[in-house]
Structure formats: structure tokens, C-alpha cells
Amino acid sequence: MKRLEIIGLMSGTSLDGLDVAHVMFDFTNQKVRFDILNTGHYPYEKELKTELDNALNLGLSAIEVLNKELGNFYAQCVNHFIAKNKIDHSKVDAIASHGQTILHQPVNGYTLQIGCGTTLAVKTKIKVINDFRTKDIILGGQGAPLVPIGDFDLFDGEADAFLNIGGFCNISFKPKNQVIAFDICPGNLPLNRLANSKGVEYDKNGEIAESGEINFFLLDLLNSLDYYSQNGPKSLGLEWLEESFYPLLKFDKEIESNLRTVTEHIATQISSVLQKNGIKRVLLSGGGTKNQFLVKRIQSYYDGEIILPKEELIDYKEALIFAYMGALYLKNKPNTITSVTGASRACVSGVLHTP
User: Fold this and answer.
1) Is 75 helix (H, G, I), strand (E, B) or coil?
2) How far apart are CA 84 and CA 79, in angstroms?
């Protein structure tokens, strides 16, 4: 299999919807080549988004119902995507789906991403690979971050480090030829939740945050959270936000000040990691990259160069990389990195579902 055609699905913790990337991978040479053929975004319907946002509080049976419901939604999106872009269904080798993270507690030995793979496979009539995190956790790893394998296989040489600002902010870089990656801090999740309190989905361009004043007491509390003093490998989950981060914020008043302060917190944590590790050039991706005020605040602390790629990569880089992880799975090649996750060995992670 020198060439593989994969549809990658990414559904992030920001709950803005499903990103779809249709990608051709060429493994003929040592450096993998890729061509993004089509992309698409499918927002969650309001009811489904509300259910997903509340999933952490659901019982087992309700989560299983939601798992099937989300699998059906993914299938509808993929079938529409294939029809809209006139894709030859028979040439698609697989769908690689990240799923929607509901639980992530590697310290307790488990993680859960829903979006039923069997439902997706049967309803699209295409093989599906999902559940990319579990095997790594069983091997003692964090099950995250997973994106760095794509950063350095597909984009090596374009920057010293790769920073994704999504629901959480994660970074990958390669000092002394060993890939290091971890979650730095929260990203869009607290910013969006605060913006929701103002009756908007998100703080466009960071305009609300820019209008607020920094609460330096709150900023010190946020910067003092234990997670930031831990050594890697490490990763963040929704549970950490609910238990450690959100209790420090006020969601019913002082929204402008809270947004300004959390934005400053994110900028200081990101720039601290970049400066500490001597990163001279960093490539940004993810929805938070479009928050102009946040990027401006990062640049105010960071001495190096911030690279903004073309919009297609800003929006669909993670969907592209999960497509790549699916391609590696089909080629029976490891798609995890031990220096990143802390697992006892690299592995071919994922679960295959046939139509």
C-alpha cells in the first residue's frame, strides 16, 4: 500500500463541531507526502451540543445512547461530505475518527472517546479506525498528545515547535532528536464558557477580553495551579477544568475581567514554555489561532517568530493528522511516540470496525 486515501475526523473539546479532511498519503519515499483533497466542517446541532457538554454528568446507559447518536451524526456528515465532493466511495481506504472525549483519566488507566465506530462503519460502508488513545494508556502512557507524530512526519523543518490552540493548548518540539509534547494549559474551553455568559458562542478576535481589566489576584491563582509545576509527560482533561480551574472563575459577573485574565493566563503559560525551551519559530494551528488578541498577547511575551499557516491547515491540521494515524494503522506502523506519552513502548494504536 504505497498510497492510501483516508477521511480524517476531528471532534475537539471546544464542541464547535466535526472537522473532516479527505487526504491522499504517498508512502513511496522515506518522507511521507500528503495532499488534502477536500475539507469540511459540520457544526453540532444545539441539542446534541448540549448533551455532549453535559456528558461528564451522565450515567452509563445515557452515555451509550449518546455514543450511538454521535456515531449516526458522524455517518450523516461523512455521507454528505462524500456526495458533496463527488468522492469515489470505493477508493476510500478508511475513516480515521478521533471521537469526542468524554473522560480522560490516564492516571486511573482509562479514557473514553465516543462516536460509535461500528455505527459509522456500517452506515458509511467504509472501514473505520477509532479509539486511538486506549492502547497507549494500557501501556502506561497518557494516551495524549497524539498529534506530534504527524507534526514531525508531515511538517518537519517548517518550524521548531508546533502549537495547537484548541479546547486545550498543546505543543510538540524536538530537542536533541527526541520528540517532546504535552498539554500546556486550557485554551478555548474556558474562553468559550465565559463568552457564553455574555450570550455569544465565543469571543470573536478576543474583543471582549481586550475590553476588560486583568484581575491580578485571579491571574496569580491560575498561574499557581499544581499542573504547571509538574514534569511531563502530562495531559489535561475536562475533569481537571471542573475540579481545579473553573471553581476559580466567576461565570455570572465580571465577565470582561475574567476573559481578559484567562487570556493573559493562557498567553503567559504558552510564552513561558516557548521561552524556557528556546523555541525560535513556532507554527500555530487550531481555532484559538483566530483569536487575534490572544496571539497578540503571546507575541508580547515571546521573543521568537510566530508562524500562521494557510487557513486550511489552521482549521484542519488535526483532522489531517488523525487521517495520517489511520494510514499508519493500516500499514501496521506505530502511530504513538513513547517520549511524548510516557508509554512503555510505541504501538499501532486504534480499533478497526468493518462495515
Assistant:
1) helix
2) 9
Q: Please give the grid coordinates belonging to residue 7.
A: 477521511
- Do 123 and 192 lie in one domain? The reply is no
Do 70 and 152 fall into the same domain?
no
- Residue 315 and residue 19 in contact, taking contact as beta carbons nearer than 8 Å: yes
Q: Is residue 13 part of a domain?
A: yes
Nearest to 216 by CA among 269, 273, 264, 184: 264
Cell 504513538, located at residue: 336
20 closest CA partner among 308, 289, 326, 249: 326
Global pTM?
0.91
- Minimal CA–CA distance to 314: which of 7, 5, 10? 10
At 66, which amino acid appears? Answer: L
pLDDT digits (tens, 9 = 90+) for 297-352: 999 999 999 999 999 999 999 999 999 999 999 999 999 999 999 999 999 999 99
Do 11 and 84 belong together in one domain? yes
Closest CA to 125 of 89, 162, 96: 89
Per residue in 211-265, pLDDT (tens digit) is 999 999 999 999 999 999 999 899 999 899 999 999 999 888 899 999 999 999 9
The domain that contains 72 carries what CATH number?
A: 3.30.420.40
Give the side-chain half-sphere CA count within 13 A for 129: 25
Whether 298 and 165 map to the same domain: the answer is yes
Indicate whether 338 belongs to any domain. Answer: no
Question: 23: which residues sit within 8 A by CB, 6+ positions away?
Answer: 5, 6, 7, 8, 34, 35, 36, 37, 320, 323, 324
Instruction: Show the domain range for 63.
Output: 3-140+345-353
Whether residue 81 contacts residue 110, with contact meaning beta carbons closer than 8 Å, is answered with: no
